[in-house]
UniProtKB/TrEMBL annotation:
This is Gluconate 2-dehydrogenase subunit 3 family protein. It comes from the Bacteria. It comes from OM182 bacterium MED-G24.
Amino acid sequence: MNDTISSDSNVTESDLVALRAVAGTIIPASEQYQIPGADDEAIFRTIVSLVREQGDGTLKTQLAELQSRCQERHGCSLQKLSPTDRTSELKDSSNARFLYRMIHLTANAYYQDGRVLASIDLKEEPPFPGGHEVPQGDWSLLDPVRKREPFYTKV
């Protein structure tokens, strides 16, 4: 059996708790703006879903390496570190690929959540074709391009 995070049988509860801690560190909740952090249940479910869609084991491997370093340096797991220590561990250059990937996954999932979109005055729908008018430009600007001889080889 391959060691990917794509199936529930390979994802341990400890992995999920650590991933949730990482997500919450990347985007914490804001009481000021009354929006959830990325460790919110619904948002985290989306993160896990995105991870499963990718279906490779590198994230699980990188997470295990990060957990191992935390255990060596601090004597505890990543999720038990203070937010400041967790942030500095994530910023460590040896975790750059993991952090980049988690930032991408976390932001992607976070900005799909309706509460977050509402807080920044966006609707939970694509801007077009929702009836929005697209202003027409000056199509005559393309006339020189239309008149130009083709620069490609016809096949």
